[in-house]
């Protein structure tokens, strides 16, 4: 526990806590990370309740799709992390096309509930996502953050995290096919 924060895999027994985090975020409440997993037509058709139901089935699978952060036992934040191969959006994306043929894991989404923002929780979620991925066999982690210096961003665009947060955690930029969206990596072994 760090400053009252603790972190756990997002498993089915934590479904109510996961929903509390997503429901505190306007886009997260409707997206449920389906943006990354589903073909665009399915993601858009499921916006809202469809994506919520889909996400419940994802959380029920054996491999947790991310980690959940708590502050003194209250659900506070989410970080999506899983093998890159499970994300349909990444398989189809030209800007985020594979850098090479390594089997990497991807960190793609952060959600922090309003009462816990501006307390460094995203950085703690990142640290624990790295630990979770490493403990589950990841040799390399990849992410697609926003470079705020290259783009005037609003908060809605920061779900993938900020470049500075990843660089501070030891990630290095390995590609940049969009001006404000680099691909960063961290070796886990």
Automatic annotation (TrEMBL):
Tell me the domain of life: Bacteria
- N-acetyltransferase domain segment(s): 16-189
Q: Which GO terms describe its molecular function?
A: acyltransferase activity, transferring groups other than amino-acyl groups
Pfam families (UniProt xref)? Acetyltransf_1 (PF00583)
UniProtKB keywords: Transferase
Any idea what this protein is called?
GNAT family N-acetyltransferase
The protein's organism comes out as: Rhizobium leguminosarum
Q: What is the lineage of its organism?
A: Bacteria, Pseudomonadati, Pseudomonadota, Alphaproteobacteria, Hyphomicrobiales
